[in-house]
Structure formats: structure tokens, C-alpha cells
Amino acid sequence: MKDRLREILGNFFISVTLIDAAMFVLGNILMPQQRFGYEVFIYPLIYGLIGVIPALITRDGKELSVKQTVIRHVIRMLMTVVLLLAFIFGGNTMDHDRIVAALCVAVSVIMIYAAVVIIGWFLDKKTADRMTADLIRFQQKQRE
Fold it and tell me: How many other β-carbons are positioned within 10 Å of the β-carbon of residue 19?
């Protein structure tokens, strides 16, 4: 449970950082003339929280194969896209500009999700490599 919470919190903070970057890029492309007040700083935190909801409701009860892991990530990514699009655009009439914005948001969510998974994989690999090296040193000391 502790490792799962640590993973979800790590993914949240990585997501928020990448969401900030995506909002900056998309904002400058789609609405360069628009300026915001301080209330805009809360949105990356809200979007990051919405982004971890699929991970909270889809538990990994057992060790998954690579194929199952990929399918799980695709399902979580689609859930994240749907949740965020519903939160951002829900209740609005969809004109051409909003459809373009929604497509841009969907693509950025997919890119952010993929980046979070890849960054998480690299961090896990680094931890596994360090643990393997420690285990090898421990085994060598036991032999001596």
C-alpha cells in the first residue's frame, strides 16, 4: 500500500509539472492574447488529481504480464482523457474552436500520460539496478 501511494504521488507530481508545460504551450498556440489571474495556478493541481483517479480505481491485485500492463495503461489513459475532457469542456456547446481545443487537450493528455509512464519506468529501473548492485555486493561479502 505504501509503495502504491508513493507511486501515485510521484505520478501526480510528474503530471502536474508536465501539465504546466502543456498549458503554457497550448495557451500560447491557441489563445496567445489571453491572460489569467492567480486562480489559474490551481488548475494543474486539479487536472493532476483527476489524472490519478483511474490509477486509484483500477488496482493491480496481481503481477501483470507485459500485454496486460499495456492494456491496463491504455484503459487508464482513455479514462484520463475522458475525465479531463468532461471536466474541461463538459456543459459547453462545442463549436469549431472548442473542438480544436479539445483535440489538442486530448493529444496533450496522451503525451503527458505516456511521458509519466516512461519517466516512472526509468525511475523504477534505476531503483531496480541499484538494488541488484546492492544484492551482488551483499552476496560477494557473504562468500568472503
Answer: 21
How many Cβ atoms are within 10 Å of 54's Cβ, its own excluded?
20
Would the pTM count as exceeding 0.90?
no
Q: Give residues with Cβ within 8 angstroms of 11, minimum separation 6.
A: 51, 52, 55, 116, 120
Report d(CA 26, CA 35) in Å as an integer: 13
The type of residue at 10 is G
Alpha carbon 131 to its chain's center: 25
Cα–Cα distances in Å, from 58 out to 14, 20, 69, 71, 102? Answer: 20, 26, 12, 12, 25
Measured CA to CA, the distance from residue 102 to residue 106 in angstroms comes to 6
116-128 pLDDT per residue, tens: 999 989 998 999 9
